[in-house]
Write a structure and sequence with these properties.
Length: 726
């Protein structure tokens, strides 16, 4: 964030640029629009014991919006931003106000304390999230939850607006509202709200609401004049807002000494609702920032915006006003008309300040039905944006959650709707997650071989009966919703394929919950009873300990733990080969197997004969070396001094991660490229057991080419064919 000097220079530069005029126009429009909405909200919020001081309450709302808008305009990373109290939170406050059973002045001070506490709690939470850079945790609030809350808030605003325009079932039977005299009362307000909604869809709220409000107020007083009704008579009939008593204005709303009249028992009873306000503020902020990114097409620094909003909320709380956050619609509009400057928000603050000073003089001229119509229009807009459009776009299950939360808010309250909505989302999440197949890939040891260099008979056995060794790669998080179906599927597959071994590769599994561990142990018990060997790849210490604690020793021995998939597949191959040799029913397959082995043995014997003949001819140029089990033949640090041809024994080559790449046996070249000079190999070759190699150095090879060209050509051909066979 910039310092005071940097802000001053930026404001001065913008004031001298082409942005000044758009800032003056759009800031003024936003301020007038804000005043209209805040008057409507205050009219619906300050009822009951708060009705005589409703104008002072509106002053609280305006002052809080002024403070929030000013700090947001100065420090937000999004230039041109303005701020207002979130409507969802205001709907909750509207439900709190009628519960205050104290006199007017103490009720106003108590309501201010409620505003201030909610703003302080929100601000502290936002500051912590922003400073800890933890906003990424809130980018994934499910839309059905946020949409349901906001739709419920829109419904509450509509219900609050209906009595203001003359539709109040609590004071008049429902059927009497359709009598001509009653229709004449509420029809104009309802028609004005409908007109605002339709017009705003065409031209937007920024122009329609202020202009419509001025026109409606003027038309209302013209009608009063035409029917011969004075403003005082209209005020007594409830058609105009009440004028402050005692000559007081909108600000200050109360003296500091009045703080002693706060009803703390009333506040204590509303603590759950205050927590709901904080939650709704978080949801509102997430939706606002997401909308900014989507509407502007640029990335927003969430950590900074949470920090700025938190600081503004704490500052606002000191005045006893609710928190204000970025006003999404006007902020995006300011960018489109070159009003993307901090001056825009400051102009809005100036208009709000003028309303605080001079607003009380015109309060008595504002019609109550007009304020009710504006509030009803606001509620309808929210219902349309988050309810009607959701019905067209959301899947049935997610739309059902939106409706559950919506009706929960209307009939039970925000807190109950929060709990119900979150439970519904959790149930839906678990259901969908349980339908994801944890098995990423299936194969058998016939198709997925280890890199062990096996004999021709063993390779033939694996080709013939390799389907009895299964290899399954698992993924994701295995939990109670998917574990039992997973291991049931594996059990049925092993039975159907007459398998003798299964490799479970869990390296891509992020975790097992306790139910999944129990399901795994149950599967291992069935494996022990059926004679299946289970090889688990990539199990961590925690899973290993959990499995060991839940398995008896006689079952535990049927589980093998490996960290390398190649080693695990090799284990499974060993079991398949061993069971084949023990299986008395394999006699029917031995004829075809012998034919395949005989053909392969013939090729192998010919290759071995060629190799031995070639070694005999190379005696003058090769040097013999022997290695004990575990010794290194070559490595990146100690590269081979020449071509190493395996004469006897066995060695394995490993890459930098320790995974086995291949296995070398008699007749194989350890590193064919070493024939052409000393080079740094990326593999480490280690003797699996005692082995012997014949080494042909690059110098000896050059001498060979000079004196025995045909033999060198034969060696080249052998190496090429050997590489092709690998």
């Amino acid at each position: 964030m910039k310092g005071i000097g940097g802000l001053a220079r930026e404001l001065t530069r913008d004031a001298r640029s082409h942005k000044l005029f758009p800032a003056l126009v759009m800031g003024s429009v936003a301020g007038v629009n804000r005043i209209s909405v805040l008057f409507a909200l205050g009219t619906a919020l300050f009822v009951g014991a708060l009705a005589p001081v409703a104008v002072k309450g509106v002053g609280l709302l305006i002052f809080g919006s002024l403070v929030g808008c000013g700090l947001t305009a100065l420090f937000s990373g999004y230039r041109g931003a303005t701020a207002k109290p979130p409507l969802a939170s205001m709907a909750v406050f509207a439900g709190m106000a009628p519960t205050l059973s104290v006199a007017s002045e103490p009720a106003l001070v108590t309501m201010a304390a409620i505003f201030g506490l909610s703003a302080a709690a929100t601000g502290i939470f936002f500051l912590a999230v922003g400073r800890l850079r933890a906003t990424g945790l809130f980018r994934f609030v499910p839309y059905p939850v946020s949409g349901g809350f906001l739709t419920g808030a829109g419904g509450i605003l509509c219900l609050l607006a209906l009595p203001l325009i003359g539709i109040d079932p609590r004071t008049r039977p429902f059927l009497e509202m359709f009598e001509p005299s009653a229709i004449a009362v509420w029809a104009p307000g309802l028609a004005f709200a409908a007109g605002l909604f339709l017009a705003s869809r065409r031209w937007g709220d920024r122009v329609v609401v202020p202009a419509g409000t001025v026109a409606a107020v003027a038309l209302f007083h013209i009608v009063l004049l035409g029917v011969g009704t004075s403003p005082s008579e209209a005020g007594e009939a409830g058609l105009l807002l009440s004028v402050p008593t005692g000559g007081g204005g909108m600000w200050p709303p109360f003296e500091l000494g009045a703080i002693s009249g706060i009803s703390w028992p009333s506040i204590a009873a509303l603590v759950p609702e205050l927590l709901v306000v904080v939650l709704l503020n978080v949801v509102s902020m997430v939706l606002i920032l997401g909308g900014l990114e989507l509407g502007s097409g640029r990335e927003v620094d969430w950590d900074r915006e949470f920090t700025v909003a938190g600081g503004a909320a704490v500052a606002t709380s000191l005045s006893g006003a609710p928190a204000s956050f970025i006003n999404l619609g006007p902020t995006l509009q300011h960018q489109r008309v070159s009003a993307d400057t901090r001056l825009t928000g400051l102009v809005t603050c100036a208009v709000l300040g003028l309303a605080l000073v001079y607003g009380s003089t015109i309060i008595g001229w504002i019609p109550t039905p007009v304020m009710g119509a504006i509030l009803l229009h606001t509620g309808i807009r929210i219902l349309n944006d988050f309810g009607v459009r959701s019905a067209r776009q959301l899947p049935g299950t997610e739309l059902a959650i939106v409706l559950v939360i919506f009706f929960g808010v209307l009939f039970f309250g925000f807190l109950e709707a929060v709990v119900t909505g979150m439970l519904a989302v959790i149930v839906l999440f678990v259901f969908r997650l349980s339908r994801l197949n944890p098995i990423a890939e299936r194969s058998t040891v016939r198709d997925q071989r280890s890199r062990r260099n096996r004999s021709i008979p063993d390779r033939a056995i694996l080709q013939e009966t390799g389907t009895r060794g299964r290899v399954c790669q698992l993924r994701g998080y295995v939990f109670f919703g998917s574990a039992f179906a997973l291991f049931k599927d594996l059990t049925e597959d092993l039975v159907a394929s007459r398998s003798v071994c299964i490799v479970l590769d869990i390296r891509e599994v992020t975790g097992f919950d306790f139910s999944a561990v129990r399901a795994l142990c149950g599967f291992l018990g069935k494996a022990q009873a059926a004679g299946w060997l289970v090889v688990l790849v990539g199990a961590g210490d925690r899973l290993e300990n959990q499995v060991s604690k839940n398995l008896p020793d006689e079952v535990r021995r049927w589980l093998i733990l490996e960290q390398d998939l190649d080693r695990a597949v090799e284990r499974c191959e060993d079991v398949v080969i061993e069971r084949y040799r023990e299986d008395t029913d394999a006699s029917a397959h031995r004829g075809a197997l012998l034919e395949r082995v005989a053909e392969g043995l013939d090729r192998q014997l010919n290759r071995q004969a060629d190799f031995e003949d070639m070694l005999e001819e190379l005696q003058e140029w090769i040097e013999p070396y022997g290695y004990a089990k575990g010794e290194t033949l070559s490595s990146p640090d100690e590269p081979a001094t020449g071509l190493q041809l395996m004469v006897g024994g066995q060695a394995s080559a490993f890459d930098a991660s320790g995974a086995r790449v291949r296995q070398c046996g008699p007749g194989d070249a350890v590193d064919p490229a070493a024939l052409y000079g000393r080079r740094k190999s990326d593999m480490t070759v280690v003797a699996d057991r005692s082995c012997w190699v014949a080494t042909l150095t690059p110098i000896a090879f050059r001498l060979l080419e000079e004196s025995e060209l045909e033999l060198s050509y034969r060696l080249h051909k052998y190496l090429v064919l050997s590489g092709a066979r690998r």
